[in-house]
Specification:
39% helix, alpha+beta, 4-stranded antiparallel sheet
């Protein structure tokens, strides 16, 4: 049986699901987001998605056991998500209609009621890279990343504190703002800045002595981009990086400059910056990585050390 866990790492969700009310464990969120990458853009309906536990662990860089998966699935199937279209219009769903395990093969299907939010998306949606979300251990950090990714182009997002607590369905102990700030907001700020393509900063608005709103400013994480450029300059000198849309071969010189190898033409600084950003955002598709699939944990360690 052919696996549906491909090398794709990107998934797309309607903003209504991103902003839905639900509470999941990190393992449950990882399972959902990993399986979302199995959905193809051209799909018009959900199908049975097949994979083995070994394939799942290889893709997620985790070490889940059969018992872990069974417990995660049973817990997940008992936790609905609530989508609020308006104050008087809401829907309650489950993520999956079923899971089945036959020997080593696991099969599942997303609930058909989610089609408008995962397949037939007609308005706002959020595209996320699984590789940026998996390293975060906090389920709240994973969710905050998606909530802020939606507003990345705007550059900031403001939340009413009580409404955000309700969206994340935090436990009663986290309704105390000092705990919520420490365990959710500041943890998310640290995780997102460390692992993702976003750089965020928290600020607060008070009414009297009570914090009623929090705002996150959102920028591109330039440290991640700089690390990527340093990595290419160190290990992929004069190797084919990518073919541009018009078919031109792009390489990086010994001097660290991008150039077109068909004409040996160096690229000016302004165009180079745009190309570096494009290569960074599409690094999984770079020619230099094809056929020699790198260990992403190893690469991230190298990227981190090149920044420090």
């Amino acid at each position: 049986m052919e696996t549906n866990l491909t090398e794709r790492n990107y998934s797309r969700q309607s903003h209504l699901i991103v902003n839905a009310k639900y509470a999941l464990t990190p393992s449950e969120i990882n399972l959902i987001l990993t399986l979302l990458t199995a959905i193809k853009k051209e799909d018009t309906d959900f199908k049975d998605y097949n994979f083995t536990l070994a394939e799942f662990n290889q893709k997620t860089k985790k070490s889940m056991t059969t018992k872990d998966l069974n417990n995660t699935v049973k817990s997940l199937m008992s936790k609905p998500l609530e989508i609020y279209i308006s104050e008087k219009k809401w829907k309650v769903f489950h993520w999956f209609s079923y899971f089945e395990c036959d020997d080593s093969l696991i099969t599942c299907r997303f609930d058909k009621a989610l089609k408008p939010y995962l397949l037939e998306i007609k308005d706002r949606f959020v595209i996320s890279d699984l590789r940026m979300i998996l390293p975060m251990r906090s389920s709240y950090s994973k969710r905050m990343y998606l909530l802020l990714k939606e507003y990345a182009k705007i550059g900031m997002r403001t939340f009413n504190v009580e409404e955000l607590q309700e969206t994340l369905k935090v436990p009663k102990s986290f309704k105390v703002y000092s705990e919520f700030k420490k365990k959710v907001l500041k943890k998310a700020e640290a995780d997102i800045n460390k692992f993702t393509d976003l750089e965020i900063k928290l600020s607060e608005k008070k009414r009297g002595r009570k914090v009623v709103e929090v705002t996150f400013t959102i920028r591109k994480n330039n440290a991640d981009l700089k690390a990527f450029i340093g990595y290419i300059r160190e290990l992929y000198v004069n190797e084919l990086l990518y073919h541009t849309k018009d078919g031109r071969p792009l390489k990086c010189s010994q001097d660290g400059l991008l150039y077109y190898s068909d004409t040996m033409e160096n690229i000016n600084k302004k165009e180079s910056m745009k190309l570096w950003e494009y290569l960074h955002e599409n690094q999984a598709r770079l020619t230099c990585f094809q056929g020699n699939l790198f260990d992403e944990e190893e690469v991230m360690n190298k990227l981190s050390s090149s920044v420090n």
